[in-house]
Amino acid sequence: MNVKPLLGQHHVSAITANAKENYRFYTKVLGLRLVKKSINQDDTSVYHLFYADERGNPGTDLTFFEIPHAGTTYYGNNSISLTSLRVASDEAIHYWKKRLEEFEVKHDDIITRYGRKVLSFQDFEGQRLELVSDETNQGVAGGKPWDQSPVPVEYGIIGLGPVQLTVPKSDITAKILTEVLGYREKDSYPSLIEGQPNVRVFETGEGGTGAEVYLEERSDLSRERPGRGSVHHVAFRVETEEELKKWVDYLKQLRLPNSGFVERYYFRSLYFREPNGILFELATDGPGFEGDESFENLGENLSLPPYFENQRTEIEAKLKPLNTKE
């Protein structure tokens, strides 16, 4: 490989049918900060909402495309089947169990998996989420929770944890992770589903919760039908634009179909699908979210990349009002 190893998770982008309720859940219940209220750059009639730590540091973003008529998700294979969110300690996991109960959020019991305390839950649309403790974690550093969040800073979400991929044949995805993206296969742990193979653990860069991918093989599932509450894609971190351009050339050399270089203003991107059909993105750490809003006012107004600014009137006319200053 003539490219540097990926640094870990950058962001996960999912689908919601209700931006207003989505904003309420992820800010008021989960305590994340809305760091950018923008548009889907491929469909400017719908919102793209970015939730993260205090300033949207790379590796902390959970984003949502609003698709108002999105149907029900039928869970299955060929999917990003779990997004985990890091918290600093085991104590925080117990805090969250009480908080989820208080807000009547559907959740499982706390368990220990792969040596870490975890708590699985779902949002109001069935988005599959999990809190994971960094108590014993070593590896990529987490972010910094916003001090104006309704969740105390010591218990706040500090970034994205491991992302789980569920596929009918794990070897072909494993080959992309290791031979193309440079991940290391580190370990495995028993599947929760009887008769299914162990879940395989891959890591990149410094490793740890912010740089792991779990690969689950399931022979008992049909292909997932995505809708509200499903994940659209996962993005992995590339340090600079120069490095991303090397990745563009590298995938070209490998003859892997891909998007080529894509300008997203808040970061630069490259997209491709692995053989099981899951969409991967490589995204740069910068420029970040403070190019068009101050740190104090992140997410309060509709932000448009400069190349959409001349369409602002038409774009705003199509969007449902969403008050993000409360």
Automatic annotation (TrEMBL):
Name assigned to this protein: Ring-cleaving dioxygenase
Gene3D superfamilies linked: 2,3-Dihydroxybiphenyl 1,2-Dioxygenase, domain 1
Record domain VOC: where: 8-134, 159-285
InterPro entries: Extradiol_RC_dioxygenase, Glyas_Bleomycin-R_OHBP_Dase, Glyas_Fos-R_dOase_dom, VOC_core
Organism the protein comes from: Halalkalibacter okhensis
UniProt keyword terms in alphabetical order: Dioxygenase, Oxidoreductase
TM spans (from-to): none
Pfam families listed in its UniProt record: Glyoxalase
GO molecular function: dioxygenase activity
